[in-house]
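Reposting from the mailing list since nobody answered there.

I have sequence plus structure tokens for a pair of proteins and want to know whether others read the tokens the same way I do. The first protein:
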Amino acid sequence: MQTIDALNNTLRTYLNPEQANHVKRAYFFAEQAHYGQRRRSGEPYVTHPLAVAGILADMHMDHQSLIAAMLHDVIEDTGIEKSAIGEQFGPAVAELVDGVSKLTQMEFESLEEKQAENFQKMALAMARDIRVILVKLADRLHNMRTLGVLNTNKARRIARETLEIYAPIAMRLGMNNVRMEFEDLGFGVLYPMRARRIDAAIRQARGNRKELVEKIRDQIQATLDQEGHDVAVIGREKHLYSIYRKMKSKRKSFSEIMDIYAFRIIADSVDTCYRVLGCIHSLYKPVPGEFKDYIAIPKANGYQSLHTVLMGMHGVPIEVQIRTREMEDMANNGIAAHWLYKSDGESANGSHARAREWVQGLLEMQQRAGNSLEFIESVKIDLFPDEIYVFTPKGRILELPSRATAVDFAYAVHTDVGNSCVACRINRRLAPLSEPLESGQTVEILTSAGARPNPSWLDYAVTAKARSNIHHFLKRQTHEDSVALGRTLLDKSLADFSSSLDKLSGENLAQYLAQHGYEDLEDLLVDVARGSRLPLVTAQQLLREVETGPLREGDSEPVAIRGTEGFMVSYARCCHPIPGDAIEGYLSSEKGMVVHRGGCNNLADLRDNAERLVALRWDDEVAGSYPVELRVEVQNRRGMIAVIATRINSMGVNIEKISTDNKDYQFTYVNMELLVQNRVHLARIMKRLRAIKHVRKVVRLKN
């Protein structure tokens, strides 16, 4: 068990005496505050904060973090206020303690929602001071080490949460030692039998291979000493959970995983790292495609190292990592090593800056997410990346998860670039936005001022930032479209009674909205647009309740359709209405306004719900292209489809679909779906098609 004296001795190796004394004073403060409280194991409660501070001291964290670790449960578990901590230890420590304090237990519908809400709060606290998460991780690590005293269900729940959330966060912040311990402890609780079996197998394998490992290590060390390199060669063993995960994902047996020998070489400088790489490549043959240079291109969490795989004696693969002492500290402690090396500046600050950037990204995601569950799903996607590295046209390197596409790249550059993206060039060739990117490619995004995100992007966007921004934009766009359509429909129904929304009394309208459970007029208009409330019935209610007096029906104009209404107006696929056709609308509760041609057979079936039908007309300035179906009857001649397609293409018209249907041995039907602007445009196309030799008939399909 950690004691304050043992901790004090550790602190004096890297803190000045005054700072070490402040931490000691915080211990006595916590001991007094938690007096009489005991942990589930029966030990005095103060042993927990002392152990958390000990974990942070091993990482060489600053004295304020250690004080916060000592006091992290004081606010919630005792009667001491945040202000009292501020007076004793300063405002910075008080803020840290407040951020780390166990989050208030709120009532949520489900455990997942509670976990998501807590994580959301943690993200906000991290944004104020990144050290909050480091203290929180140390707190969770000590809790994981002492899970044995809890009942099985609670221990399993904590272990699962640790593997899903805390281990990936530790990895994202480059804290490899903490992550590995989280994973091994969590694995042991969730799958005790599997953990015991793998652990026993490792012990057995370790004995069998000890001699060969020593032989390889000595050979590498002797070669490097001969070349005059002052380095340390360390045999490295995979931890339990990574072996289990590899066996599961790669469907390999334990013996296949353990066939790989791993070594780490610690050098004195970056220059020596590359020289060492050359030496070991001359000693053993490197495996093609297995070399990775994370020194030149560090990982997002600041991790730097050279990775290579060699074919050793007896054809045994050897994994080697080469790095400097500082990179080794960064790899093990990640952002925590920033406080150890902060006087050096750049490399440490790089790690710190990356962590801050990630937290900033979390905040942006949180603001755009609809709820805490959606937010935590986005974060989980973001926490499990296998990275690829791509370049902007100006040579800037961006790290993305594997399977990322140009859409993910565009949002990684800037949200506005993503929102206005229309096409991309990969290595200077035009490519579809859905094409997965590969490391080393140069990606250029083409944008347009009037462009906006497409819902289909969600099928292939993989980064949390891209997906949350697309969701956010589509939600906002759908809402704006719904409000505009709802206003048009309601105004049209009010016009039947010689009234309008502008004429209604504001005070009475507010009373009506409150009475029917609406926060504001926009919510009512959205319901009208989506078909949840019928415009005619709503208009009558409004006039009866807001403007008392008899209702007088008048003649009103049909609603004008411009083609730019957005998501809440769709065009029926049964009859394909185009500008110039007589049209009528049907209010569907799922799709909003569905526009049909006046004589559509399906519309006749809908006339039983007359209150859902809306009189429509095309606006004089209608925009866009609309699908229309044609059937062309042609004589059976070789190449007729090519002739028809060429004629249509020469008019600058898109063919969306084309198929054939044999009428008999002499004639064939060619069915096509084209995009046209209006009836005049369609008539011109049909006239040109009729002029083709061997074309007998061209008709527009009605239903």
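The second protein, same order (residues first, tokens after):
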Amino acid sequence: MEASSTIKKVLAGNKIFVPSYQRAYSWDTEKKPTEKKKQVNDFVSDLDDYIRSSTTTPYYFGHFLFQEKQEGEYGVIDGQQRLTTIAIFLSALFTHLKALRNLTDSEEESYEDMIKRRSTYRFTTVDYDKQVFKDYVIDHNRVNKSGLATESAKRIVTAYDYFVQHLETKDENYLIKMLDAIQNASCTTHNVKDEAEAIQMFIFQNNRGKKPSNLEILKAEFMFNVHLYGGEEKYDIIEEIKDRFREIYESISSIEYKVNEDDVLVYTLRVYFNSLWETNAIDKISNILSEGNPIRFIQDFTRSLAVSFGHLKCFFGKDERENIEIHSLVTLGGIAIAIPFIIKAYSFGLSTKQICSLCTALETIVLRHRLIGTRADITARLNEVYKNFTQENFDINPILHRIDGMKNAPNDSWWWAYWNKSELKKAIQGKVSHSSAKYLLWKYENHLESQGKNGYTPKRYDAIEKPELEHIAPQTENPAAGYCAYDEEFKNQYIDCLGNYLLLSKSHNCSVGNEPFVVKRNTYEHLAQQREIQKMTADNLIWSKELIEKRKDKITNFILENI
């Protein structure tokens, strides 16, 4: 490839692919015009601005780094997000142009050079998304969108649909200008045959889209160090690392919307060094790489990374769908203190029942910590039992005992008492954040529904359609509308408390708004807690301080006994 080139020249006659040890497609699309634009939206918006400007200077697509595998076949080391988006957009553009008229000889040549010639695809993405890319984007075959296995495949399909929608109203003149702009867009390329050089260049180079994550930077650092210190075995070790990262990126593509990859890097650090205090992965690992021959560490740590991502793929995927205890912890969110315990539990081969018990215990202490809002360091209280939780001693009972001790510590036990029942009770008497209140009311809902029912299956949080928090007595006073007087006591102590909060679907919440109580009450029939309000007001259609207090006490007692 030429150092200074055009997009058409880069693609023409070549086969370009994204190696599977590289990140899959990560650019997002914002479908709502009122929301902040994402990378895919910016891509087409920038091109629109360019063709409207009537400038004679070619559009610039930046720098691309390739590794030549064989004659005419290149793996893209840096720039895969841009190249993938260019290929998706060009396919949508050619499709619309073909719908308007037959392609000219020149346009047909451009299509064959940049998209596909017979059975040769000019660009393909990572192996596990390759078939979706070929089928849906290039060959326009139907795919089951609801059955796409990875987030990256969903992004590919979403980007293509967005481009199709954007182009469907455009005329032939616009399409020709856009095609000319893209195929003649300038770019610079660097092609290497030595993988060490490619990796070293990647370390110091950012692309136009998302900056490299810490995980990507460490991957490049690992592979470069293997080239430096791997000796005669370096090529075998490089292949091993590629295989590990192929596993890692496949896992990421399934669970990235539930967990951040750089967070998993830190969790793995905490598992590998057996300490919840580990925080800065880049600094820690860079120091290790600078000390002597790091090959054994690189092999061991990449293996640990692949294991962590594999276990979390199972945890956030199949196991979360099938086990309410895991679903509950995942739904809670903000569970960084819990994840290293979970990774260890999977690594030690604990049963699903044991993992569920561990999740329940961790959920209660994380939730208490959040509700109480203490500055006391929870890590200091859990690190000892975490360190003792090992392959040789994988009994979860010491962990459960420690958490139970924190929840039931006497008030005079200052080191442990920050999370006890007294502190929890005080924390939930007044205003509770909306996210925590919704979570608590979901728990309370399952408690109400289970009363007198043997074998009751708890309702999942995501089974409630867009759950929102309703103020039964609205925040804005509606005089003579079935609520008690909005005096200062009522405003300060009763409006924002668990007794006046109710879980509703978004559509339900929008429909009742600031209506009189009797109107709201008549709609409270979908969830057990809504029907509870109807029963509480069967003899008096006034939602009073006394009833709010009574309901708050019921919810408080439930929380103290179960959380």
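Reply #1 (J.P.):
I read it the same way you do. The chain has a mean pLDDT of 91.
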